[in-house]
Amino acid sequence: MIGKKIKRNILTLIFLFAGSESFSQTESGLNFRQKSLVSIAALTASGNQQLLEVEATKALDSGLSINEAKEVLIQLAAYDGFPRSLNAINILKKVTEERKAKGINDIEGKTPQTLDARVNKYELGKGNLEKLSGKPETSKAGYAQFVPVIEVFLKEHLFADIFSRGVLSYQDRELVTVSALAALGDVDSQLQAHLNLSLYNGLTSLQLDQMFKIVGELVGKSQAAAGKAVLKKLLETNPK
Q1: Which of 6, 60, 130, 178 has the fewest C-beta atoms lying within 10 Å of its C-beta?
Q2: Among residues 125, 201, 197, which one has the least CA distance to residue 163?
Q3: Residue 53 burial (10 A CB sphere; 0-12, 13-18, 19+)
Q4: What is the number of other CB atoms lying within 10 angstroms of the CB of residue 232?
Q5: Helix (H, G, I), strand (E, B) or coil at 167
Q6: How far apart are CA 171 and CA 31, in angstroms?
Q7: Count of CA atoms in the C-beta half-sphere (13 A) of 211
Q8: R_g over Cα of the chain
Q9: For 19-54, how does the pLDDT look when each residue is reduced to its tens digit (9 = 90+)?
C-alpha cells in the first residue's frame, strides 16, 4: 500500500513538472520566459506603455533578469526606433525601482560583453549575420546597393555592436525581432526574412504561431492575422 502511494506521488510530481511552462521549452510551444520576451517586444513596438508596465512586472516575477529585459529594449532601438525603445526603457526603470523600494530583489542577470576597440566591426557584423542565417554573403541587397552606408550601419551597429553583447541568444533575438515586427505591421518583407531566421535558429512554426497569438492579445488581432499570413506563405514556399 505504501509503495503504491509513493509511486502515485512520484507520478503526480512528474506530471506537474512536465506541465510547468517555466520548467523548460516543451513541445507545447513557448515557455514562460519566451512569452515574456514576446510580450515586452510587442508592447515596446506598439508603444503601449501602460500595458508594458504590467507585462514587465509579470516578466520579472517569472524570473526574467533585468539585463535580459534591458537587452530586448536595446535591440529594438534598431527595429522600432529610439523613441519607442527609450520610452520602454523608462518604463522598465520605473518598474525595477518600485520593486526595489518594496524589497523585491530581481535577478540582475549576465553582464553584457563589450567589444575590443581594435575589432573590425563591419567584418564582425558580417560574420555574425552569416552565423545567424547559416549562409555566406554572396551579394548585396537592393537597399544596400542604392544606399551603401545603411548596410554599413546594419553590419557595424546592429549585427556587431548589438548582436555581440550576449545575454540573449540568437534565437531569443529573433523571437524578439519577429514579435516587434508583427506588432508594427506593414513590414512584411522584413518580417518574412526574420521568420525565416527564426526557423533556422530553432524556433518551430508552433512557437511562432503562439507568438502571433500573444501579439493578437496584447496589440491587435489584425496585426497577428497579417503576421500569420506571412508565416503561412513562407512555410508553403519553403516547407521545413
Answers
A1: 6
A2: 125
A3: middle
A4: 12
A5: coil
A6: 13
A7: 32
A8: 20
A9: 333 334 445 689 999 999 999 999 999 999 999 999
pLDDT tens-digit map of 54-89:
999 999 999 999 999 999 999 999 999 999 999 999
How many Cα atoms sit within 13 Å of 26 on the Cβ side? 11
- Count other Cβ atoms within 10 Å, centred on residue 70: 20
Rounded distance between C-alpha atoms, residue 180 and residue 41, angstroms: 5
Half-sphere exposure of 113 (CA within 13 A, CB side): 12
Question: Cell digits for 201?
Answer: 535558429
Burial class (CB within 10 angstroms; exposed 0-12, middle 13-18, buried 19+) of 112: middle
d(CA 49, CA 89): 10
Does the pTM surpass 0.90? The reply is no
Grid cell digits, residue 103: 524589497
DSSP 8-state secondary structure symbol assigned to residue 175: H
Measuring CA to CA, which residue among 208, 150, 128 is closest to residue 176? 208
